[in-house]
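Board notes (copied after class):
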Amino acid sequence: MKDGKLLVVVPVYNEGDRITDTLMGLKEIELIDEILIVNDGSTDNTQDVIEKLGVSIISFEKNMGKGYAMKRAIDDMEYDYIAFVDGDLGYSSRELEKLIYPVISGEVDFTIAKFPERSTVTHTKGGFGFVKGLAKKGVYFHTKKEIDTSLSGQRVYRKEVIAVMDYIPNRYGIEVAMTIQALNGSFTFKEVPVEMTHRYTDRNLKGFKHRGKQFFDILKTLIIMYFRR
């Protein structure tokens, strides 16, 4: 059914407590040919943990940004299909299989995971939706397509889709930039409902700072992409 190599890339920063479970979930998916962890300058025990997991590793001495880590994998590795997953999914990474089938079967050119509504998986409060709203409106502005998953880090692409992407921002704008370029390349896609869970950012000072960085990185990405048209 699958014609070619499927590479799964897991960019991580300080995920020593969850990366083992994430990898265990991925290793249950027989369709995956290679798993690559890109350790983006973690300051916890992530490096020690991943060295024992029997997967390919690229490590940076300092934090370079998620987009930078993903671009390194795109440029350095061989693949016919490439998937990206976050390191904090835990065992729910097993759900990636749902994103793989539509791509390798030729149904669509790329897939993006659609998480369940947060209220169905946790009772804690997260952000106010500013970042998600900016991303959704920004993607629509650039593509005239309305999708709900422009921020999701869980994706599977055919190599041909990646080949049209000539702008990979280093940090939080990465998913939005990839989404816009893939949609404008007239590739077919599918948002796939999954039962994945990950670490959420709470409504505290640390959380607000994190969302602020996301917001301005995405805004910067959208502006840069406007002037690149």
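Comment from the instructor: The radius of gyration is 17 Å. Residues 6-228 form a domain with the Spore Coat Polysaccharide Biosynthesis Protein SpsA; Chain A fold (CATH 3.90.550.10).
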